[in-house]
Design goal:
7 helices; four-stranded mixed sheet; alpha+beta; about 280 residues; about 20% helix; six-stranded mixed sheet
Amino acid sequence: MDELRSQGLGLATISYDSRETIAAFSAARGITFTMLSDPGSATIRRYGILNTVVEEAFGPDRDDPEVQAAVAQYVSVVGARENMRGIAFPGTFMLDTEGRVTSRFFEDFYISRNTVASILKVVGTGDGTVQGTSVSTEHLELTTYPSDPAVAPGNHFSLVFEIAPRPGMHVYAPGADGYRVVTATLESQPYLAPRPLAYPASEIYYFEPLDERVPVYQRPFTLVQEVVLDGSPESQALLRGQETVTIRGTLEYQACDDTICYNPVSVPLSWTMDLRSLVFR
């Protein structure tokens, strides 16, 4: 909360639970931010995020395999219960000071949740609070770190790459045909689901000898690789008993200056985070 307030942000949750349930839960978990009760899911309905799959679980097609698969994905892997009527599809809205929605974050699996740090990094307001790893190459300076020091199954977090090309150097951005575009590649692991790498805007570099214009990065820039630590029962079983989770990957790029194009480079990297347990209560 201190970090959010320092950026002029507030936080509130909205749930269909009663005031009594929310009060008991917040007291048990030591929660100090605002938790709002939405009886009858009135606000949830106005935002268009009522979880209608719950109703399908009790409808005439409840035994349809497609309906059962949807229930497992959007409601619960152990099936729907009557007291789930009125729940929302989980997500996060960001509003400006006039109450207008400026961005929103939703997931494809009910256990998945964006971390606050990852959301702030994606919208460009979050500062790195996790100690990073610094790497120097002939062509650039790199600092990389995860958005969160600890994650739980289902968490949607980010790996951050802060890259500063050396003076006179540039690396290639998406759309640079014939060159190795700067990218991050993660080793495949059964409980990791990488999302598409997010690139900032690039600039056009004119290479006079070839009369060529290509998109590049010449100034410091940041890449954000969003990752989901899968929360399915199978992935939870694979992670059980572990105290940390380690992700390995590489940063790949090709750098050039005004006269020389250097060979493509692959920088090996790894990130280790503490592993938290899911709260099922």
